[in-house]
Amino acid sequence: xxxxxxxxxxxxxxxxxxxxxxxxxxxxxxxxxxxxxxxxxxxxxxxxxxxxxxxxxxxxxxxxxxxxxxxxxxxxxxxxxxxxxxxxxxxxxxxxxxxxxxxxxxxxxxxxxxxxxxxxxxxxxxxxxxxxxxxxxxxxxxxxxxxxxxxxxxxxxxxxxxxxxxxxxxxxxxxxxxxxxxxxxxxxxxxxxxxxxxxxxxxxxxxxxxxxxxxxxxxxxxxxxxxxxxxxxxxxxxxxxxxxxxxxxxxxxxxxxxxxxxxxxxxxxxxxxxxxxxxxxxxxxxxxxxxxxxxxxxxxxxxxxxxxxxxxxxxxxxxxxxxxxxxxxxxxxxxxxxxxxxxxxxxxxxxxxxxxxxxxxxxxxxxxxxxxxxxxxxxxxxxxxxxxxxxxxxxxxxxxxxxxxxxxxxxxxxxxxxxxxxxxxxxxxxxxxxxxxxxxxxxxxxxxxxxxxxxxxxxxxxxxxxxxxxxxxxxxxxxxxxxxxxxxxxxxxxxxxxxxxxxxxxxxxxxxxxxxxxxxxxxxxxxxxxxxxxxxxxxxxxxxxxxxxxxxxxxxxxxxxxxxxxxxxxxxxxxxx
RNA sequence: GCCCUUGUAGUUCAAUGGAUAGAACAGUCCCGUCCUAAGGGAUUGAUGUAGGUUCGAUUCCUGCCAAGGGCACCA
Length: 577
Description:
Layout: H1 9-15, H2 17-31, E1 41-42, E2 52-54, H3 56-64, H4 68-81, E3 87-93, E4 97-102, H5 104-117, E5 131-135, H6 147-165, E6 169-176, H7 181-191, H8 203-218, H9 220-235, H10 239-263, E7 269-272, H11 273-286, E8 293-295, E9 298-301, E10 311-314, H12 322-336, E11 341-347, H13 351-364, H14 366-371, E12 372-377, E13 380-381, H15 397-411, H16 420-437, E14 445-446, H17 449-452, H18 460-479, H19 496-502, H20 505-515, H21 519-538, H22 548-569
Parallel strand pairs: 5-6, 5-11, 6-7, 11-12, 13-14
Antiparallel strand pairs: 1-2, 2-4, 3-4, 8-9, 9-10
Helix pairs in contact: 2-4, 3-4, 5-22, 6-20, 7-8, 7-9, 8-9, 11-12, 12-13, 15-16, 18-21, 18-22, 19-21, 20-21, 21-22
This protein binds one RNA strand through strand 1, helix 3, helix 7, strand 9 and strand 10.
């Protein structure tokens, strides 16, 4: 992982090319005695339109009753008087856009910066000295770790890294449901399977849960029986149940750790519903009459008063529900880590539920509520519909990784690299994570084994492959003793797009951080890798020529950028594949 | 019924209110003496629907249609 250190100030002045342009535009506008709040700057879709573009002339034209193109010309005249050195030319285009073309010197200088900043390239300081806790993955012991958890993990891990790269200290948190009805269902199912020991294998647990869940729906007697088990788990007063419970929990958690290792997540803090339960119950009881009220033997929060749902916090059995546990969790978290911000990542089906929890939190712990941000991601669904561990209609994370890895190994059959198995797993996990992180966080993914996972084009392996190619070029340059050089200014036909994309990386990271959207990084990297692959196809990089040292420098800048970018996505960048 | 999401090529996804709506996969056609062809190049093809706001709408607003999610003792 790149070391996050305090970056020195001059690096920042570099990143601020955007700021330089905005300032120049604003100054020009002010000189014309016009006013503008925020200068909108964007990268035109077409490289031919330049590197940055602003629409100020069009937005201001109406105010002053001028033709936008003429106004743009006037603004440009002022900009040109004090033209920033990074700018080569400024032109009017289209309906009145002002397009900035940056100089070749700027691009060369930005390559130097990429190399100089090395593993810090792309990072920023916007969250300096902030402490953030990010909760994600949240699987439940006694249930399967399925591809929905994989989704939460991929997104949570990437958001954590993006936040870290923006200067914050991040604690990764995992909240696991080790008590509650689902556990009782699994225990009931286990007892009725005739299995003697949970320790034999953990796959029994998933099936046991499915059995219990089905029986719970089907018969009133079983329902009561399972509720009884639930109470016993909570009270810990039955030796047989305690044994199944303790072994089952242990096995589940060990299994989860294996998966986290494969996925590249290392949690700092673990929280359990069993610890949140009693605290939640107490919190609710202390606030009956103030926040909560009794209804049909349960303690509820009347969310309807606030346009939300009414929900049960302590059920009529006297047991705390998920709602009160989540409330307690917020308190426990804040006691364990003095954070400025707490981010909770769950599937979108919990969106309205969590709003109720937040509404309660606002009343009981207003300062915590203010620091809490709930991010919901879409659901991973199967072509057949919603995945359900109750019916056993699930794809486990492990089986998915295994299957994809087998396909990768098949593709690598002619390869002669040493640690094929490990690399295959890195590629498999990369492919899976990419398919999750390539789209915006809130959207559902209809998961189809054949269609969702690609090794070509818009895919994780495409990025990894581009990185290994660059790596191979650098190896060769080393062997042929070609030293990196950025002192001359060369126009390399096949490198223009690459040059024009590399310097944008820090902007992309900033935006991904601001909006909690890793897919900006994904999209950018894919475009960047495409530019590199074109460059690679058009230009011979390692050769005996004047431009070779610069082309090698470009290659290294690319390798460095994609390496840092893949890290942000939580995808490994193998040297060979 | 009420509330929340989402509707973009055949498919999976992009697009900060801007310029000719980008990619990838699939289809058709090229590229192998050369640093890894998991690659490069060319080509066919899309904004659910009806209005509104705006100099400009895939993006904002409203209606309709469609899909998904949520709505008291599950998590």
